[in-house]
Amino acid sequence: MISQNPVFIPGPTNMPEAMRRAVDIPTIDHRSPEFGRVLHPALEGVKKVLKTTQAQVFVFPSTGTGGWETAITNTLSPGDKVLAARNGMFSHRWIDMCQRHGLDVTVVQTPWGEGIPADRFEEILTADKGHEIRVVLATHNETATGVRSDIAAVRRALDNAGHPALLLVDGVSSIGSMDFRMDEWGVDVAVTGSQKGFMLPPGLAITAFSPKAMEAVESARLPRTFFDIRDMATGYAKNGYPYTPPVGLINGLNESCKLLLAEGLDNVFARHHRIASGVRAAVDAWGMQLCAQRPELYSETVSAILVPEGFDANLVVSHAMDKYQVAFGTGLGDVAGKVWRIGHLGSLTDAMALLALSVAEMVMVDLGLPVKLGQGVAAAQESYRLSAAPVQKAA
């Protein structure tokens, strides 16, 4: 039997029924005007979610990883210099991709649980008098550690240094769930995927390029074929793709943007903050700590919870699935076995979060951790009771 319980992993996220219906459509001719009526509203919807009026959006049949590759191959040439902080599994993987593409990466080693050190970036960029660094990479929300970095601070570091490098931002686990201001923050390439804040199945790499990034595309010499945004732009102008598009997913993206914008982006972000605050209240009541080192770093979409030294955090995840059919996230990379993760993003409510916390308590009690049933749930209930969104009463 397929579990009817919601998942509490950092993605893929739970799918609203409207999204499931949106991707389940009959076959259409993707070279006909009918496809354009699906495609172009989806692209415009993404621009509104990203808070950009200037960027061009390109959507590929891929995942966030494909979005990373789209970002670097369309803006860089072999041997170009890149600046990045390694503060989690996903920043590590983007750095690894750059190195495999023959790029020269200056890696700022940063403790996992900390955010991007914008002050250190500013020092490095200021010292780069010849402006050899072409790109700065930034992971907005490090999914492995539950750490949110200040992208506006990274932009200030670039501006204070008077440096022309492009700012490429991984927003895979933030966009659509946490405030993201592409134009205001001076982001040159934003990357996300369909399976997190957009509440769709995996399968879309969603990217947006600023006018400055579009200028860099023409001189970039890294090989690209499938991810060439010039070919994609040519296809869009003809209401099509340079190859067969995932029509159902793109229709789902259109509907997802409608759903997010109908709720109101500020309301979406407030909902995620409220749910995350309840989870954090529970963690505190358990006497545990988050991997994120300080409140200003706390993610609104995923909490990575540290376990006592000598205990294997993977047991929490496996026991929750084996006994209660509830999915939590495992620790990755440097924090594997040290943390387990609750994903609280996408299609989620306060009540659903309470389900996750109640199961987590049962699991930890089963495993002998010093937690009492109801301890964290009560703290989260109080948080939600005091911060619940006002009920809309009928006129």
Question: What would you note in describing this structure?
Answer:
- This protein has 395 residues and is of the alpha/beta class.
- The protein has two domains: 17-262, Type I PLP-dependent aspartate aminotransferase-like (Major domain) (Aspartate Aminotransferase, domain 2, 3-Layer(aba) Sandwich); 265-387, Aspartate Aminotransferase, domain 1 (Alpha-Beta Complex), CATH 3.90.1150.
- The chain is built from 13 helices and twelve strands.
- It has helices at 17-23, 33-50, 64-73, 89-100, 118-127, 151-160, 211-217, 229-237, 247-263, 265-285, 314-324, 350-366, 375-387; strands at 56-61, 81-86, 104-109, 133-139, 141-142, 147-148, 166-170, 189-193, 204-209, 302-306, 329-330, 339-343.
- Strands 1-9-8-7-4-2-3 form a seven-stranded mixed sheet, sandwiched between helices.
- Strand 2, helix 4 (89-100) and strand 3 form a beta-alpha-beta unit.
- Helix 5 runs parallel beside helix 6 and helix 9 (247-263) crosses helix 10 (265-285).
- The longest helix is centred in the last third of the chain and has 21 residues, at 265-285.
- The chain is globular.
- Residues 391-395 have low confidence and may be disordered.
